[in-house]
Specification:
elongated, 73% helix, 70 residues, 2 helices, mainly alpha
Length: 70
Amino acid sequence: MDIHHALFWGCVAVCAVAELLILRDVFAPATDVEAPAHLPRSPKAIEILWGVLPIFALVALFWDAWRALA
């Protein structure tokens, strides 16, 4: 395996772990932290959208990068 493929798969792994951590925070927020009442909150559907939307961008980005490497 050459260095380009190793870097590619390393980036895929790091982005996948980061996205899983983002999704964990979106779907299972911390219950021991009380949100201040004076701060506005966005609707849960919007938070889920902004948590899931990067998945599609990352898949498209990595798909094009993989095709360029092949």
